[in-house]
Amino acid sequence: MLKLVVLISGSGSNLRALLEATSDESFPAQIVAVGADNEASGLAHAREFGVPTFVVSPADYANRVSWGEALIAEVSSYAPDLVVCAGFMRILPANVVGAFSPNLINMHPALLPLYPGAHAVRDALADGATVTGATVHIVDEGVDTGPVIEQLEVAINADDTEETLHERIKIVERELIVHTVRNIAHAHVNLQELARS
Ligand code: GAR
């Protein structure tokens, strides 16, 4: 059974998809804790499922390194096999990446390497793209640059706004994150090998 710590910053719809999937006993992973960088509304999903939560806010630390150390200590206390950033909107400091990668994955609302960063949906629309999507990748020290694990496409409609497009991407993301975690748990995806390639 793969043990997951999930990190979020916002509403946690991807977290909820993982909570629902992992509450099925036949699913090969379980969420042992959910962490956030603020009092995120999505933490309520974890509480509803009886999963422990923690908040490690950068505002409480002198610099990124000490925030990272606190985050490493909190995450490590749950001894996870995999850390999943599901809408975690902070760039992780190098000490955190060093502590957990390649067993550290991130969900991103675009077909990386296209549209990295915090405004991927807006950037795809501004670019006039007709297709975007969702990516799960290994976190490395860059911004959304680590090896891609899985991707799914989403068509962009002529009348899409950032909100309508992001909602459709999130529907695909929920499927993708559950599918990817299952594949990692079943060793159909080997993160160590992928990180070396
Ligand atoms: C998701 O679309 C995720 O891909 C995105 O934040 C959203 C969180 O939604 N992450 C990023 O943009 C990271 N750069 P959720 O809180 O409803 O799961």
Short description:
The chain has 197 residues and is an alpha/beta fold. 37% of the residues lie in helices and 22% in strands.
Proportion of helical residues = 25-40%
CA radius of gyration: 16 Å
The distinct ligands, each listed once, are: glycinamide ribonucleotide
Unreliable spans are: none
| H-E order | EHEHEHEHEHEEHH
So what's the overall shape? globular
Structural class: alpha/beta
CATH topology, anyone? Rossmann fold
Secondary-structure arrangement, i.e. CATH architecture: 3-Layer(aba) Sandwich
Give the helices and strands, then pairings:
Elements: E1 2-8, H1 13-22, E2 29-36, H2 43-48, E3 53-55, H3 64-76, E4 82-85, H4 94-100, E5 104-108, H5 120-126, E6 131-138, E7 148-155, H6 162-185, H7 191-196
Parallel strand pairs: 1-2, 1-4, 2-3, 4-5
Antiparallel strand pairs: 5-6, 6-7
Bound molecules: glycinamide ribonucleotide.
Glycinamide ribonucleotide binds at residues 8, 10-15, 42, 86-87, 89, 107-109, 118, 120, 169-170, 173.
